[in-house]
Amino acid sequence: MMAVTLKQIADSAGVSTATVSRFMNADPSLSITQKTREKIIKAIEDLGYDKQPRAISIPRNIALLDTTEPTDLVQDEYFDTVRESVAEFSRTHNLTLTTFTTLKDILKNAKKVDGFIGIGPRTLTDRELTRLHSALPHGVFIDTNPAPHLFDSVQPDLQQTIVDAIDILTRSGKKKIAFIGGDDASPDTHHRKELRSRTFIEYATSCGLDITNLVYDKGPFCVETGKTLTEQLIANHKEAMPDAIIVAADSLAVGVLQSLAAAHIAVPHDVAVVSINNMPIAQYMSVPLTTYDIDIHELTNMAVTLLTQAISRKRERTAHAHIGTKLVVRSSFVPERI
């Protein structure tokens, strides 16, 4: 097959060769209408230019739907890193990124973008998600999977992480393991426990562990929730504390360690603590935190890749990816063997 030339693309799109060249090189000074941009992209795809041995990344406009709300410094830092990583990989993939914080705004601008990446708590209802899909059928959610039948998603493999945490604690001789987590923020799933809580209950029970009154998972994922839930745990088990606590996120773990210290419960001597996220603060706590690392850059890279593939191929079926986590061992729990 003969290679497709810029002139062929220009002729098909009804523009100059120079315009096509500047478009493909993402020239920031190029000013063209949305209609012209769509004509160039259609010509590129119809002629198969992106299938040539020397493939290029077609410039596209994408939206970042950011539904995060300030909670506490630890949780905010996590989403700050996600935002920065999305921006970084968007540049790498030759994408123009525009941020929207409400459904109303992204719907108003839907015709100006080719797809979206969603981050933040699951605050959209089923009806809102359906409206979003009608306007923008190509979208990827990071960290959550609010509408698996409508949109792609990329998530850390939290289910396997909880299983691994229970296994590594029991192999180290821990027999009474508690869990501290948070609520699922979705208005349509308030009656269901969050994935980490569900997995802990199901797998711990299957392992024959007695977790009666050892699951505390009500409240947002923030430091204050971690403090409050740990105070409840201590009050209910002051005569026989668990010998280990699995915490759903580092933002909670900060509060967990604070409450344990206030009650003069030594970590890890009296109780081991294992968390999830590996935020920078984890290594600087009074007791450095053993936690499962989530590779945010891998999550966002995969999200951008899924989105660009879906747009280019006009993929109609959704795709979902889970990225594994890795245990980072610090003082709050040192396993006997990994």
TrEMBL record:
Protein keywords: DNA-binding, Transcription, Transcription regulation
Coiled-coil region: none
SMART domains attached to this UniProt entry: HTH_LACI (SM00354)
A GO molecular-function descriptor: DNA binding
Gene3D superfamilies linked to this entry: 3.40.50.2300, lambda repressor-like DNA-binding domains
Family matches, as PROSITE patterns: HTH_LACI_2
Domain of life: Bacteria
Domain HTH lacI-type: 4-60
Pfam families listed in its UniProt record: LacI, Peripla_BP_3
Name under which the protein is recorded: LacI family DNA-binding transcriptional regulator
Organism: Alloscardovia venturai
